[in-house]
Amino acid sequence: MGVPTLGCDCRVCTSADPRDRRLRPSIAIEWMQDGEQRRVIIDTGPDFREQALRENIRHIDAVLYTHSHADHILGLDDLRPLTFLAKDRQTGEKLKVPLYADDETAQILERIFDYTFAPDSPYPNKARVDLHRLTAHVDIAGVSFVRIPLLHGNLEVAGFRFGNAAYLTDMSSIPDASMKLLEGVEVVILDALRKAHHPSHASVGEATEWVRKLKPRIAYFTHMSHDILHAETESALPAPIHLAYDGLRVPVLL
Questions:
Q1: The domain spanning residue 29 has which CATH number?
Q2: Of 73, 137, 185, 231, whose Cβ has the fewest other Cβ atoms within 10 Å?
Q3: Within-domain flag for 78
Protein backbone atom coordinates (compact mmCIF):
# COMPACT_ATOMS: atom_id res chain seq x y z
CA MET A 1 0.00 0.00 0.00
CA GLY A 2 3.04 2.26 0.16
CA VAL A 3 4.46 4.05 3.18
CA PRO A 4 3.15 6.42 4.49
CA THR A 5 -0.06 4.42 4.21
CA LEU A 6 -3.22 6.43 3.59
CA GLY A 7 -5.08 7.32 6.77
CA CYS A 8 -2.36 6.07 9.12
CA ASP A 9 -0.59 8.03 11.86
CA CYS A 10 1.67 5.25 13.15
CA ARG A 11 5.32 5.95 14.03
CA VAL A 12 6.53 4.65 10.67
CA CYS A 13 4.05 6.62 8.57
CA THR A 14 4.96 9.80 10.49
CA SER A 15 8.71 9.07 10.60
CA ALA A 16 11.11 11.86 9.59
CA ASP A 17 13.61 9.27 8.28
CA PRO A 18 13.43 9.45 4.45
CA ARG A 19 14.12 5.70 4.34
CA ASP A 20 10.66 5.19 5.85
CA ARG A 21 9.01 6.65 2.73
CA ARG A 22 8.44 3.66 0.47
CA LEU A 23 7.00 3.75 -3.01
CA ARG A 24 5.70 0.53 -4.55
CA PRO A 25 8.47 -1.96 -5.48
CA SER A 26 10.31 -1.68 -8.79
CA ILE A 27 13.96 -1.88 -9.79
CA ALA A 28 16.11 -0.84 -12.73
CA ILE A 29 19.09 -2.94 -13.85
CA GLU A 30 21.65 -0.83 -15.71
CA TRP A 31 24.83 -1.77 -17.56
CA MET A 32 27.05 -0.61 -20.39
CA GLN A 33 27.27 -2.43 -23.72
CA ASP A 34 29.54 -1.17 -26.51
CA GLY A 35 29.81 2.19 -24.80
CA GLU A 36 26.04 2.66 -24.46
CA GLN A 37 23.89 2.40 -21.37
CA ARG A 38 21.29 -0.35 -21.23
CA ARG A 39 18.40 -0.52 -18.80
CA VAL A 40 15.79 -3.14 -17.88
CA ILE A 41 12.92 -2.38 -15.51
CA ILE A 42 11.30 -5.00 -13.31
CA ASP A 43 7.65 -4.07 -12.62
CA THR A 44 5.90 -0.77 -13.26
CA GLY A 45 3.79 -0.11 -10.20
CA PRO A 46 1.53 2.90 -9.59
CA ASP A 47 4.57 4.96 -8.53
CA PHE A 48 6.66 4.21 -11.61
CA ARG A 49 6.39 7.73 -13.03
CA GLU A 50 7.66 9.30 -9.80
CA GLN A 51 10.49 6.76 -9.56
CA ALA A 52 11.55 7.31 -13.17
CA LEU A 53 11.58 11.08 -12.69
CA ARG A 54 13.64 10.76 -9.52
CA GLU A 55 16.23 8.55 -11.23
CA ASN A 56 16.21 10.56 -14.48
CA ILE A 57 15.26 7.51 -16.55
CA ARG A 58 15.05 8.57 -20.20
CA HIS A 59 15.19 5.25 -22.01
CA ILE A 60 14.45 1.59 -21.36
CA ASP A 61 15.41 -1.53 -23.30
CA ALA A 62 12.77 -3.86 -21.82
CA VAL A 63 10.39 -4.43 -18.91
CA LEU A 64 9.97 -7.69 -16.98
CA TYR A 65 6.90 -8.40 -14.85
CA THR A 66 6.86 -10.56 -11.74
CA HIS A 67 3.06 -10.94 -11.54
CA SER A 68 -0.21 -9.14 -12.15
CA HIS A 69 -1.05 -7.50 -8.83
CA ALA A 70 -1.91 -3.80 -8.94
CA ASP A 71 1.19 -2.62 -7.07
CA HIS A 72 3.36 -4.15 -9.80
CA ILE A 73 1.57 -3.31 -13.07
CA LEU A 74 -0.59 -0.19 -12.85
CA GLY A 75 2.17 2.15 -14.01
CA LEU A 76 2.41 0.44 -17.39
CA ASP A 77 0.73 3.38 -19.12
CA ASP A 78 3.47 5.69 -17.83
CA LEU A 79 5.86 3.86 -20.15
CA ARG A 80 4.25 5.72 -23.06
CA PRO A 81 6.60 8.73 -23.38
CA LEU A 82 9.64 6.47 -23.02
CA THR A 83 8.36 4.14 -25.72
CA PHE A 84 7.75 7.07 -28.06
CA LEU A 85 11.51 7.78 -27.84
CA ALA A 86 12.63 4.18 -28.44
CA LYS A 87 14.83 3.91 -31.54
CA ASP A 88 17.36 1.55 -33.04
CA ARG A 89 20.72 2.82 -31.85
CA GLN A 90 22.32 2.38 -35.27
CA THR A 91 19.61 3.16 -37.80
CA GLY A 92 17.42 5.53 -35.78
CA GLU A 93 14.36 3.47 -36.77
CA LYS A 94 11.50 3.62 -34.25
CA LEU A 95 11.17 0.50 -32.13
CA LYS A 96 8.62 -1.04 -29.82
CA VAL A 97 9.79 -1.73 -26.26
CA PRO A 98 9.52 -5.44 -25.37
CA LEU A 99 7.60 -6.45 -22.25
CA TYR A 100 8.00 -9.94 -20.79
CA ALA A 101 5.53 -11.73 -18.51
CA ASP A 102 4.21 -15.22 -17.86
CA ASP A 103 1.01 -16.15 -19.67
CA GLU A 104 -1.38 -15.42 -16.79
CA THR A 105 0.18 -12.02 -16.12
CA ALA A 106 0.20 -11.21 -19.84
CA GLN A 107 -3.51 -12.03 -20.14
CA ILE A 108 -4.34 -9.68 -17.27
CA LEU A 109 -2.19 -6.91 -18.75
CA GLU A 110 -3.99 -7.35 -22.05
CA ARG A 111 -7.37 -7.12 -20.33
CA ILE A 112 -6.62 -4.12 -18.08
CA PHE A 113 -4.74 -2.24 -20.80
CA ASP A 114 -6.99 -3.33 -23.64
CA TYR A 115 -6.59 0.07 -25.33
CA THR A 116 -2.85 -0.62 -25.55
CA PHE A 117 -2.82 -4.24 -26.69
CA ALA A 118 -6.02 -4.81 -28.66
CA PRO A 119 -5.20 -5.11 -32.39
CA ASP A 120 -8.21 -2.94 -33.24
CA SER A 121 -7.54 -0.30 -30.57
CA PRO A 122 -8.38 3.14 -31.99
CA TYR A 123 -6.20 4.89 -29.39
CA PRO A 124 -3.56 6.78 -31.42
CA ASN A 125 -1.09 7.47 -28.59
CA LYS A 126 -0.92 4.04 -27.00
CA ALA A 127 2.40 2.79 -25.66
CA ARG A 128 4.68 1.39 -28.36
CA VAL A 129 5.24 -2.01 -26.76
CA ASP A 130 5.33 -5.69 -27.69
CA LEU A 131 4.17 -8.16 -25.03
CA HIS A 132 6.02 -11.49 -24.97
CA ARG A 133 5.25 -14.63 -22.96
CA LEU A 134 8.19 -15.59 -20.76
CA THR A 135 8.64 -19.15 -19.53
CA ALA A 136 12.33 -19.61 -18.70
CA HIS A 137 14.76 -16.84 -19.59
CA VAL A 138 15.33 -13.96 -21.98
CA ASP A 139 18.55 -12.40 -23.23
CA ILE A 140 18.52 -8.61 -23.42
CA ALA A 141 21.51 -6.71 -24.83
CA GLY A 142 23.90 -9.49 -23.84
CA VAL A 143 22.50 -10.14 -20.35
CA SER A 144 20.45 -13.23 -19.48
CA PHE A 145 17.45 -12.75 -17.20
CA VAL A 146 16.39 -16.11 -15.75
CA ARG A 147 12.83 -16.50 -14.51
CA ILE A 148 12.76 -17.92 -10.96
CA PRO A 149 9.38 -19.48 -10.06
CA LEU A 150 8.27 -18.42 -6.55
CA LEU A 151 5.12 -18.93 -4.50
CA HIS A 152 3.16 -15.87 -3.37
CA GLY A 153 0.75 -17.76 -1.15
CA ASN A 154 -0.86 -20.17 -3.64
CA LEU A 155 0.00 -18.01 -6.67
CA GLU A 156 3.08 -18.73 -8.76
CA VAL A 157 4.99 -15.52 -9.46
CA ALA A 158 8.35 -14.75 -11.01
CA GLY A 159 11.60 -13.69 -9.46
CA PHE A 160 14.56 -12.97 -11.70
CA ARG A 161 18.24 -13.81 -11.63
CA PHE A 162 20.67 -11.67 -13.60
CA GLY A 163 24.39 -12.30 -13.29
CA ASN A 164 25.36 -12.69 -9.64
CA ALA A 165 22.14 -11.09 -8.37
CA ALA A 166 18.51 -12.07 -7.86
CA TYR A 167 15.30 -10.12 -7.25
CA LEU A 168 12.70 -12.13 -5.31
CA THR A 169 9.83 -9.88 -4.34
CA ASP A 170 6.32 -10.99 -3.29
CA MET A 171 7.18 -14.48 -2.14
CA SER A 172 6.29 -16.70 0.79
CA SER A 173 8.32 -19.70 -0.33
CA ILE A 174 10.92 -20.79 -2.87
CA PRO A 175 10.43 -24.21 -4.52
CA ASP A 176 13.36 -26.63 -4.43
CA ALA A 177 13.83 -26.40 -8.19
CA SER A 178 14.13 -22.63 -7.91
CA MET A 179 16.73 -22.93 -5.16
CA LYS A 180 18.91 -24.73 -7.71
CA LEU A 181 18.54 -21.77 -10.09
CA LEU A 182 19.76 -19.50 -7.29
CA GLU A 183 22.92 -21.45 -6.45
CA GLY A 184 25.92 -19.17 -6.17
CA VAL A 185 23.91 -15.95 -6.04
CA GLU A 186 25.93 -13.22 -4.31
CA VAL A 187 23.44 -10.33 -4.13
CA VAL A 188 19.81 -11.02 -3.30
CA ILE A 189 16.87 -8.65 -2.86
CA LEU A 190 13.87 -10.34 -1.31
CA ASP A 191 10.46 -9.83 0.20
CA ALA A 192 10.13 -9.04 3.92
CA LEU A 193 6.69 -7.51 4.37
CA ARG A 194 6.43 -7.24 8.15
CA LYS A 195 7.49 -8.81 11.42
CA ALA A 196 4.39 -10.98 11.88
CA HIS A 197 3.61 -13.98 9.67
CA HIS A 198 1.67 -13.28 6.48
CA PRO A 199 0.04 -15.95 4.29
CA SER A 200 1.55 -14.73 1.01
CA HIS A 201 4.67 -12.75 1.94
CA ALA A 202 7.83 -13.56 3.87
CA SER A 203 8.09 -11.99 7.30
CA VAL A 204 11.36 -10.49 8.48
CA GLY A 205 12.19 -13.70 10.33
CA GLU A 206 11.24 -15.92 7.39
CA ALA A 207 13.21 -13.77 4.95
CA THR A 208 16.22 -13.97 7.28
CA GLU A 209 15.96 -17.77 7.12
CA TRP A 210 15.88 -17.65 3.30
CA VAL A 211 19.06 -15.59 3.35
CA ARG A 212 20.67 -18.18 5.59
CA LYS A 213 19.79 -20.88 3.03
CA LEU A 214 20.87 -18.88 -0.02
CA LYS A 215 24.17 -17.75 1.55
CA PRO A 216 24.64 -14.54 -0.50
CA ARG A 217 27.45 -12.09 0.09
CA ILE A 218 24.87 -9.36 0.77
CA ALA A 219 21.07 -9.26 1.02
CA TYR A 220 18.47 -6.50 0.99
CA PHE A 221 14.88 -6.71 2.20
CA THR A 222 12.18 -4.97 0.14
CA HIS A 223 8.37 -4.73 -0.13
CA MET A 224 8.21 -3.60 3.51
CA SER A 225 4.98 -2.41 5.09
CA HIS A 226 4.51 0.27 7.73
CA ASP A 227 5.25 -2.37 10.33
CA ILE A 228 8.96 -1.86 9.59
CA LEU A 229 10.78 1.14 11.10
CA HIS A 230 13.96 1.31 9.03
CA ALA A 231 16.63 2.27 11.56
CA GLU A 232 15.28 0.10 14.39
CA THR A 233 14.74 -2.98 12.21
CA GLU A 234 18.05 -2.80 10.35
CA SER A 235 20.04 -2.46 13.57
CA ALA A 236 18.64 -5.81 14.73
CA LEU A 237 19.39 -7.73 11.51
CA PRO A 238 22.32 -10.15 11.28
CA ALA A 239 25.03 -9.76 8.66
CA PRO A 240 24.88 -9.71 5.65
CA ILE A 241 21.31 -8.33 5.65
CA HIS A 242 20.27 -4.70 5.11
CA LEU A 243 16.99 -2.97 4.44
CA ALA A 244 16.54 -1.51 0.97
CA TYR A 245 15.28 2.05 0.56
CA ASP A 246 14.00 4.15 -2.31
CA GLY A 247 16.87 5.26 -4.55
CA LEU A 248 19.30 2.61 -3.29
CA ARG A 249 22.00 1.64 -5.80
CA VAL A 250 23.55 -1.82 -5.57
CA PRO A 251 26.58 -2.91 -7.68
CA VAL A 252 26.17 -6.32 -9.34
CA LEU A 253 28.11 -8.37 -11.89
CA LEU A 254 26.17 -9.19 -15.07
A1: 3.60.15.10
A2: 231
A3: yes
